[in-house]
Amino acid sequence: MIFDFIEILFTAGFWAATIRIACPLIFATLGELICERSGVLNLGIEGIMSIGAMVGWMAVYQGAGLYSGILAAAFVGAIFGLIHAIFSVYLGASQHVTGIGVTMLASSLGFFSFKLILPYSTTPPKIEPFQPLDIPLLSDIPFFGEALFQHTPFTYLALASVIIIFWLINSTPFGLSIKMAGENPMALEAQGIDVLFVRSVAVILGSALMAVGGAYLTMSAFDAFYFGMVNGRGWIAIALVIFATWKPERALLGALLFAGLDAYQVRAQQLAGAVVPYQFFLMMPFFLSIIAMIIAAKKTRYPKALLIPFRRGERH
Amino acid sequence: MTDLLEIKNITKRFGNLTANDNISFSQKEGEVLAILGENGAGKTTLMNILFGHYKADYGEIIFKGSELPSGKPESAIAAGIGMVHQHFTLADNLTVLENIIIGERSLFSPSLPQKSAREKLRNLSDIFGLPIEPDTLVINLSVSEKQRLEILKTLYRDCTLLILDEPTAALTPQETDSLFSTIKQMVSKGLSVILISHKLNEILSVSDRIVVLRQGRSVGEVCTKNADRKKLAEMIVGGTVDYPKKQAVKKGSEVIRLQNISCDAINDSSKGLNEINISLFEGEILGIAGVTGNGQIPLAKMMAGHLKPKNGEMFFLGKKITSYTPKQFMDLGVAYIPEDRNIDGLIGDMSVWENSIMTETNDLQVRSPLGWLNRDNCKNSAHLLCSTYDVRTQSLQQPARLLSGGNVQKLLLGRWLSRRPKLLIACQPTRGLDEGAIASIQKIILEVRKKGNAVLLITEDLDELLMLSDKIAVLFNGSLSNSFGAEKLNRSKIGLMMAGESFDG
Predict the structure, then answer these.
(1) Which of A32, A132, A185, B191 is the most exposed place for a label (fewest CB within 10 A)?
(2) CB contact under 8 A, B98 and A176
(3) Vertex A252 angle, CA A25 and B115, to 5°
(4) Please, where are the H alpha helices in chain A?
(5) Across chain B, what does the average pLDDT equal?
(6) What contacts A122, CB < 8 A, 6 or more positions away?
(7) Low-confidence residues of chain B, pLDDT below 70?
C-alpha cells in the first residue's frame, strides 16, 4: 500500500500533470509579482484571471486563432490593470479596496458577457484547444520525454515567461525601476524617473499576465468556459508571491510545488478514496502550502513601499 | 565669475502656509553657498523647487543662463543639478551599483550599463576619495556610507551643482569633518555646492556666502568671511534669545540604578542593550550621546517601563523593581518624553485639553467618583498647565497637531511634570525645535534638576549635551561607556567615542 503512494512520484504522468496544473499559477504569480515589486498589491487577480479565461476562449470560439486568443486575453487583462492603476496609482486610493472592486467587476462582467453572447447554452460549448506538441528528439527520451517535452505550446510559453520576467526584473533598466518603485519611490523620483508611470506599466503588464494565466485554463487545460472556473487560483498566486519572496525563479518553484501536491492528491484519492474521505485529499495541497509558506516566508524581505501610494509634490 | 544659478522671486504655498515668500538670490560658479535657517524656515522647500520635486507657484530659476522647467527632476538632473536629500533616497534592498545606475539609460533600453558603470564609479571614487563597494546591499551600509553613495550618485550623473540638505544631521563630528573636506575637494575640481543647515558652526567653517531664511523669507545675505556669529544667530531667530544658565546643584541620594541590564533589539533599525550599568542621583543630569540606533530607544523605553529587560536588575530609590509596566513606573515617579513626540507623546487629532489630562484620568481633580470626566475641572487643569509652562494655543479646543513643535513639547513636559516625577527621561527633547523653543525646553529641564530630581537626557545635539549634563556616557553598539564629568569632555572626544573609538576613555 505505502509502495503505491511512493510509486506515484515515479510515474511520468504525475510530473506531466504537475507542470500542466502549475501553468496558470505560473502566469498569475509572475503577474502579481511584477505588480507587488513595483509597490502595488493587485487583488484584482482573481477577477482578471476569470475574464481572461472568458475572453481568450470566446475569441477562439468566434473564430480567432489560438494565439490571437492569448493576445485578446492579455489585452483585456491590461485594460483592467489600467483601471486598477488609475485608481490605486494615479489617484492614490486604497489598493485593497480597488483590487477587490476590480475582481468583482471583472469576474461578473466576464460571466455576464458570456451569457449575453451565448444565452442558450446549457452544456458549455467547446473549442479546439492547444494540442500537445512533441519536441523532436527530446520527447523520445524515456520518462523525461513524457514528463517534460510532450506539452502544449501554451505550457512552453508559461515556462518561457519565467525566463523573460526574470530577465526583465534583473537585467533591464525598467526592471530596476520597478524594484525601486517598490522599495523607495522617492529614490526613483530623485533620479528623474516618473514613479507613477513605472508603477502603472508594472500593474498593466502584471494584469495582462494574470489574464493569460486565466486563458490557459480555457484554452489548454480545458476546452470550455464555465462560471467559477478560476476557483481561487488568483488568491493562491498571491500567497505564492510571498512564498517566492518576490523572486520569479522562486515563483516557478512555488507554483510547481503547489501543483505537485494537487496532482498527487488526485492520484492518492484514487488509491485510498474508499478508506479516507476524498475531501481530505482535496484539502491536502492547501494545508501543506500553508506549512510551506510558514517555513519559507519567515525571513521575507517584502518590498518596503508595498501598499503605500506615492503622491508627487507633497510634503514628506 | 559669472552667475551659475539665479533664483528669482520664488513663492510656494501649501494650503494656508507660505513656505517660500518671494525668495531671490544668486550663486557664482565654484562657490559654496549656505542656506541657513531654522526648521520650517523654508530651506528644504526651496531646494525641492530648485530640483523639481515641487512646482513653484511663482518665480523662476535660471541655471547656466537658461530657465529651468518647473517640477521636473529629470530636467534638473540633465542640466547638472544633483541633490542629496536629508532623508536618503536609496532603495535598501538593492545594491550600491543598482542605486547608482538607475535613470542613466532610457527605461526601455534592453540592458543595464553594469560594466561601464562599475568603471565610472571606480574612477569617481578615486578622484574624490569616496571609496565604496559596488555590490553591497544598501541596507548594510552605515549612515556615512549611505551619504557617500548619495554624493557619488549625483557625481555619476555629472552634476556641476550639488545640493546638500542637512547633510550632517546623522553624522558624528569626525564624519562631518571628512564630509567638509570632501566638499572642499569637490569645489577645487570645479563643482559648486549649496549647503543647507541650521547649524551655525558648520556653515561658518565651510561656506563662502550665506543666505539666511526666516519664516519663508530671505532676511539677509552675508559673505562668510565678514560674518558675525552673534548677528547671524539673531537673523535666524529674528530677535535675541535668552539662553538658559546652569547653576550648581547639590547631588542627593540615588534615584535609579541599572545593573547589568541587557535586552534584544526591538527592530531592525536599533541595537539591543548589552550589560548596561547606570547610577543616577538627585539633582543630576546624565547625558547619553550616540549615533541613532545604538540602543538609545530601548534604554529609554526600559527605564520608562515600556520594555522588560532580558537580564539584569533595576532599583528605584533603593528598591528592586519587579514589574515592568508603564503604569508601575509612572506610579514610582518616572516621566518619559518619547523621541517622537507627535506619535508616542500626544494624540494629534485630540484637543489640547484632552491631551493635557490624558494620563491623569484617575485624578479626582478631573473626574467624578463615579468615573465621569468633569469638563470644567479638566479645562481648568489644562488651562493651568498651559499657563504654567507657557504653552501657546489658540484655544484649549484646538487639535494638538496644530501646535508648533515647541508648544507640543511644552505641553508634554508640563503634563508629566505636574505629576512631580523623581526621574525625567527626555529623548531628543529639542530636536526639530526653533532656537527660542529650545531655550525654554532646556530651561525646564534645568529646573527639574534644580528641584532635586534626576534627568536622563538622550540627545544627538552635542552642544546641548555638554551644556546641560553633569555626567556624560556614550552608547555604541548597545554598550554604554563609563560616564565622565561633562567638564572633562569636548565635542571631538565624544565624537570619537560615538564612533566606537577609545571607548573606555
Answers:
(1) A132
(2) yes
(3) 130
(4) 2-7, 12-37, 45-61, 66-85, 95-117, 144-148, 153-171, 173-183, 185-190, 195-216, 233-243, 248-272, 278-296
(5) 89
(6) none
(7) 1, 502-505
CA torsion, points A309, A314, B4, B9, in degrees to nearest 10? 160
**Which among B20, B45, B83, B89 is the top mutation candidate for probing chain A, defined by the most A β-carbons within 10 Å of its own β-carbon?**
B89
| Cβ within 8 Å, pair A192-B83 | no
* Proportion of chain A above pLDDT 90, given as a percent: 69
The pLDDT assigned to A202 comes to 98
pLDDT at A42: 97
CB pairs under 8 A, 24+ apart, for B413-417? B413/B337, B413/B389, B413/B441, B413/B444, B414/B356, B414/B385, B414/B386, B414/B388, B414/B389, B415/B355, B415/B356, B415/B358, B415/B359, B415/B360, B415/B385, B416/B335, B416/B336, B416/B337, B416/B359, B417/B335, B417/B389, B417/B444, B417/B448
pLDDT band at A268 (very low <50, low <70, confident <90, very high): confident
Element (H, E) at B204: helix B200-206
Chain-centroid distance, C-alpha B235: 21
Give yes or no for A171 touching B (CB within 8 A). Answer: yes
Q: Which of A20, A283, A1 lies closest to A148 in space, CA to CA? A: A20
> Do residue B109 and residue A186 have CB atoms under 8 angstroms apart?
no
Q: CA B412 to CA B417: how far, in whole Å? A: 9
**Could you tell me which of A23, A9, A226, A245 has the C-alpha nearest to residue A124?**
A226
Q: What is the ipTM of this complex?
A: 0.85
Q: Is residue A132 part of a domain?
A: no
- Percent of chain A with pLDDT strictly greater than 70: 98
Chain B residue with CA closest to A311: the answer is: B53
Q: Which of A186, A192, A301 is facing B93, going by the closest CB pair?
A: A301
Instruction: Tally the domains of chain A.
Output: 1
* pLDDT at residue B505 in the model: 46
Q: What is the CATH number of the domain that holds A236?
A: 1.10.3470
Answer for the pair B266, B255: CB distance below 8 angstroms, yes or no: no
DSSP code, position B38: -
Contact criterion met (CB < 8 Å) for B76 and A192: yes
pLDDT in tens, A25-40: 999 999 999 999 999 9
Domains of chain B, start order: 3-237 (3.40.50.300), 254-498 (3.40.50.300)
**Which of B175 and A76 is assigned the larger pLDDT?**
A76
Chain B residues close to A183, C-beta within 8 Å: 91-94
Residues spanned by the domain of A228 = 2-120+146-297
Closest by CA position to A254, among listed A263, A267, A264, A241: A241
* Three-state DSSP string of B140-156: HCCHHHHHHHHHHHHHH
* In a domain? residue A140: no
User: Which pLDDT belongs to residue A194?
Assistant: 93
Q: What was the pLDDT predicted at A57?
A: 96
- What CA dihedral angle connects A147, A151, A156 and A159, to 10 degrees? -40
Residues 101-130 of B with CB under 8 A from A: 101-112
Predicted TM-score (pTM) of this structure: 0.81
Contact B110 A172 (CB under 8 A): yes
User: Which of chain A's residues have a Cβ under 8 Å away from the Cβ of B85?
Assistant: 186, 190
**pLDDT tens per residue, range B447-497:** 999 999 999 999 988 889 999 999 999 999 899 998 899 888 888 889 888
| CA distances for B12 relative to A149, B45, B55, B60, B216, angstroms | 64, 8, 8, 12, 9
pLDDT at residue A316 in the model = 46
Mean pLDDT along residues A238-248: 92
Q: Which residues pair with B458 in a beta bridge?
A: B288, B427
Q: Which three cell numbers stand for residue B125?
A: 571614487
- On chain B, the residues whose CB falls within 8 A of the CB of A315 are 14, 45
